[in-house]
Every structure is written in structure tokens, then in C-alpha cells.
Amino acid sequence: MSGPSLKKQDAHSSIHEASLNEAKELNELFRLCLQKKQKEKAFQVAEVLVEHWESRTLKHAEAEEEGLYIEMVKENPALHHLIIQLTRDHDLMRRIVEKLKVQLSNNDINEWMLILMDSLVVIDSIHNEDEMNKLLKNTNDTN
């Protein structure tokens, strides 16, 4: 069973928005470190960013997959295809985070990491829109 706020569109949207805004700020900090050629600081920011995606967004994704998505499909089997799409978004984010972790383990701090970080933001933004506008659009905050 999912937490009660996952089915409440406003609360769920707030969770997504806060996490995504933090990721955007970290991306900008990483970008600035690269521009200033501050490799050690960029490395530290990248570590924080990876931890952020794992502990915030991907933990949230796991909760959605183990609870909300299952419940929503049980309530409305027509959502099955959408749930597959949303789960694929999570999988893409997990794969990108793993690529970032490999680069960190190789101490390979470069512009490619920034592209990966920005890709996470793009995927998560689209994912969040789809959850709000397609999955949770008909739920109300009294659930």
C-alpha cells in the first residue's frame, strides 16, 4: 500500500517539485565548478547529486512502483500502459545515475556528467508532468 500523500495530487506534486528544484540547483553548482575548473569541488557536488537522486527521487520512485502504481492499476486496469511508461522513466533515471557513479568511481569529472545530470532533470520533469496530468488527474485530495 502506498503512503496517503502519493495519491493526493497536490501533495505528490510538491514532493516532485521540491526534489527536482534541489537537483536543478546542484546541477548549476556542478556547472559552475566545471567552468571555474574546480575539479575537487565538482567531484564533491557530483557525489551529493548522485546521493540526492538515489535517496530522494529513486526512493520515491521505488515507493510508487511498490505501492501507488499497483493500486492504481487495480483500480483502473486501463492505466497499465501508462504505468509501464512511468516505470520506464524510473529505469532510465536509475541507469543514468549508475553511469554517474561509474564516472565518479573513475574520478572522471567532465562535461559528459553535466549532460547526464541535465538529462535526469529532463526525464524527471516529463515524468512528473505525466504522473500529474495522466495518472493523478482524476484523484482528489480527499482520498
First-last Cα distance: 13 Å
Estimated structural class: mainly alpha
Q: Helix coverage percent of residues?
A: over 70%
Q: How would you sum up the global shape?
A: elongated
Report strand %: under 5%
List low-pLDDT spans: none
For the sheet with most strands, the description reads: none
Secondary structure tally, helices? 4
Query: What's the average pLDDT?
Result: 92
Order of helices and strands: HHHH
The count of strands amounts to 0
What is the alpha-carbon Rg in Å?
16 Å
* Overall number of domains: 1
Describe the structure.
By secondary structure, the protein is mainly α. The chain has one domain (4-131). Helix content is 80%, strand content 0%. Helix 2 packs antiparallel against helix 3 (80-105) and helix 3 packs antiparallel against helix 4. The longest helix has 37 residues, at 39-75. The chain starts with 8 loop residues before the first helix and ends in an 8-residue tail after the last helix. The mean pLDDT is 92.
Which helices and strands, and how do they pair?
Layout: H1 9-35, H2 39-75, H3 80-105, H4 111-135
Helix pairs in contact: 1-2, 1-4, 2-3, 3-4
Features:
80% helix, mainly alpha, 4 helices, 143 residues
In short:
This protein has 143 residues and is an all-alpha fold. 80% of the residues lie in helices and 0% in strands.
